[in-house]
Amino acid sequence: MYMKKKSRIWLLLICAFSLNCETIYAQNETLTPFQYNGNWGFIDNEANVVIDPVYSNITPSWDDPFSENGLAAVEANGKWGYIDRNGETVIPFKYDYARKFSKNGLAAVQIGENVSYIDEAGEVILSNISKYAGDFSDNGLASVSNDQMISGYMNESGEIVIPFGYDQADEFGDNGLARVGIDGGDGIEYGYINESGEIIISTSYEMMGLCFDEEGLVCAEDENGKVGYFDEKGNIAVPFQYDNGGIMFGFRCGLAPVSVNGRWGYIDKEGETVIAFQYDQAIPFSSNGLAAAQIDGKWGYIDRGGDFVIPPQYDWADMFDEDTAIVEMDGKEGMINAVGDMIVPCQYDSIISTISQSEWVNCSLNDDIKYINRKTGTIWKYEP
User: Fold this and answer.
1) 289: which strand partners?
2) Percent of the chain beyond pLDDT 90?
3) How far apart are CA 208 and CA 40, in angstroms?
């Protein structure tokens, strides 16, 4: 890996909530999870408590725990059900587990061992499919496993359309490709298939990106430990010649970090070196055109020309999210803006982003949890 810590703007929080308010919240209202005494609730952008912290769990989601239909799966008293953004129970709490609704309006639920699928009214559409079945992709296919935990894909009628044959079968992307894996005895090796089950990239790579990036490329590591990129047709787009690279993130803002002989730089989608190999470590560019890079043991932020615009001074630095980034100094974490101003002082044990649209981040110090607005620096803590 090319980072001291895994980039936490990509981490999922498992959370839960309840509601006690009269305001009717719009379907697209962003609600941020917060924690109190081990339970979870939700606040709006103004830190008004919309849902009290009484639910024990929620299906994890980085973008929004609520589906496009406005429903979220939550757990209370050991059972799962679905509520709307105002906390009203829409589908009763009777499941042993429940997942977020897919765009086709179906959600995987479990009573006992097997998974079934329900619609937005709670009616069972597909019954007792398997002990494991995944969410439907936008193309209407979902991974499903047999009793031997070998996976294939089914359609919305429950018919197996891609035969069982994989030890891992991930969701299909917008490009109609899905990562699959086969365990040959020394661990899972990955490749990609299309919607017809045809192999696009052979299952022979121990490390491979979960999805294709914005350039339509996916990173992989070959048997010699070298990193390169495939395009969506399965052709090698960037030769396997780098020691390390963007397995998790791929290309962002047209560039990808890669390393040769212990030094990191950036390449374009043709494999041309754009920023010279000069850094101790480097991570992908954020949407604001800045990337964290380390030199002489300290992290700062460079522009697309490779010049430091925020000087290297941090012990660790994360990607920017909403023009703020988490940084660490002397073992404590804080947040800066895109010009390097300290928005949140480096005084917390940890800072974790919540969901992607939220202005609030989770900050903890000596097990005391607070929430800070990433734009204003306002501190909020739940008071029952």
Assistant:
1) none
2) 73
3) 34
Using left for φ > 0, alpha for ψ between -120 and 50, and beta otherwise, residue 124 falls in: beta
Give per-residue pLDDT as tens, 13-28: 222 222 232 334 444 5
Is residue 209 a contact partner of residue 223, using CB atoms and an 8 Å limit?
A: no
Q: Which two tokens stand for residue 48?
A: 């008004």
Helix (H, G, I), strand (E, B) or coil at 161: strand
Give 107-139 as a 3 state SS string: EEEECCCCEEEECCCCCEEEEEEECCEEEECCC
Whole-number Å distance between alpha carbons of 366 and 287: 33
Contacts of 366 (CB under 8 A, 6+ apart): 349
Report the pLDDT value the prediction gives residue 384, as an integer from 0 to 100. Answer: 87
Cβ atoms of 31 and 72 within 8 Å: the answer is: no
Give the amino acid at 160. Answer: I
Which is nearest to 105 in space by CA: 73, 149, 69?
69
DSSP secondary structure letters along 282-346: E-PPPTTS-EEEEETTEEEEE-TTS-EEEEEEESEE---BTTEEEEEETTEEEEEETTS-EEEEE
Question: 0.70 exceeded by the pTM?
Answer: yes
In SS3 terms, 34-85 reads as EEECCEEEEECCCCCEEEEEEECEECCCCCCCCCCCCCEEEEECCEEEEECC
Q: Across all residues in the chain, what is the average pLDDT?
A: 89
Residue identified by tokens 């009203």 is 88
| Tokens 């029952």 belong to residue | 384
Q: Indicate the pLDDT class of residue 62, thresholds 50, 70 and 90.
A: low
Q: What is the mean pLDDT of residues 193-204?
A: 98
Which among 150, 200, 156, 208 is positioned nearest to 177, based on CA atoms? 200
pLDDT reported for residue 355: 77
| Alpha-carbon span 337 to 323, nearest angstrom | 6
Specify whether the CB–CB gap between 212 and 232 falls below 8 A: yes
Between 289 and 368, the more confident residue is 289
